[in-house]
Every structure is written in structure tokens, then in C-alpha cells.
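Hello,

Our lab assistant flagged a job as stuck in the queue for most of the afternoon. It eventually completed. Since we weren't sure the result was trustworthy after the delay, we are filing this so someone can double-check. Below is the sequence as submitted and the structure that was eventually returned. Let us know if re-running is recommended.
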Amino acid sequence: MNDGDGGDGCDEAEGAGAGRTATHGTRAAEPKRKDARRNKQTLLDAAAAVFVRSGVEAPVRDIAAEAGVGVGTIYRHFPTRADLIIAVYRHQVDACAEAGPALLTTEATPHAALGRWIGLFVDFLVTKHGLAGVLHSDDPGFEALHAYFLNRLVPTCAHLLDAATTAGEIRSDIDAYALMRGVGNLCIGADNDPHYDARHLVELLIAGLRLGD
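-- returned structure --
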């Protein structure tokens, strides 16, 4: 009986030690994972900035220089240019989607939040130099991006519209997809015509959604 009790005590001690080791290992790994995520975010932000300036065919060395890393680091995270383009596109879509709820908490009114978010959406549409052409290529990796774009951004726009409608600021018959499609149409050609100010027209469109006082 005593041997058995002693054995149980050893097992419990070993189990507790293993639990502490596992917990310590998890805690030690967490900062590394956070660092890896931050490093990847830095690469994606750098690539997005270079794409805006030089298009999606910009040399990888330019992206590496922007991020302050070696070229090998870029290839380690993104083995092909298609991998990098897809990651940048998704990263920018995610940032735009996540900005919607945040703006509702920081802007004075839901309509103001909607206007600010639409401005971010316009920035995304106008500055994705060369990306539209790539998305129409035969590379199978790009096939799901349009659906990803819609699945992430249409609900965000709908949420902002619902908030503004509930607040009595805008009319209730505005469809999120139709509004985004209209904004997209206003942005066509805005990246290569210095005499065309798409942002101003979009601002007028959003201002026109308001109900009369």
C-alpha cells in the first residue's frame, strides 16, 4: 500500500513537472510567434508600399530594402511572386475590413465612420497598381481572391450602413454591394489620370446618402 501511495505521489510530481514544462514551453514560444507575425506584417507592408510605387513586378530586392531584410527572408516567407502578391492583397483586404468596426468607435457618428471607411476602400482600389491585371491571369492562386474580397468587405460595409441607418442618418434602401460597386466604378482610371479626382466624387456620393435634416 505504501509503495503504491509512493508511486502515485511520484506520478503526480512527474505530471506536475511535465505540466510546468509544457506551460513554460508554451509561454516561451508565444513571443516567438508574435515576433514572426510582426515580421511578416512588416514584409507585407513593405511589399504593398513598393507595389504602389512600382507595380507588382517590382524587384524583390526593392521590397527587401524597404523592409530592412535580406532577399532570402522574402523568399523564405513567400517562395514565389504569386505567393507574395496574394498575401499582400489579403493583408490589405483584412486591414480594410477590420477598420470598419474600429471607426464606429472612434468617429463622431456612424455616417462619419462610413465616410472614413469608404475613403480607405478608395485608397485600396486606386493604389493597387498592376494588381488588377495580375488577378485576371491564368495563375490558379488568384482565383479565390475576388471572393475573399467580397466576403470580407461587403459585410463590413453592410455593418456601417446598418449603423448609419439605425442612427437615422441615411436612407434604408442602400445595398452594400451596390454601393461598393458604384464606388469602384467611380475609381476606374483614377490611378493614371491626374485630372480626375475620384475621391472627391466618392465624397459627394457618400454625402448624398444623408437624410435631410
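-- support follow-up --
The delay was a queue issue, not a problem with the job. The result is valid. Residues 142 and 148 are 10 Å apart (CA to CA). The chain has nine helices and no strands.
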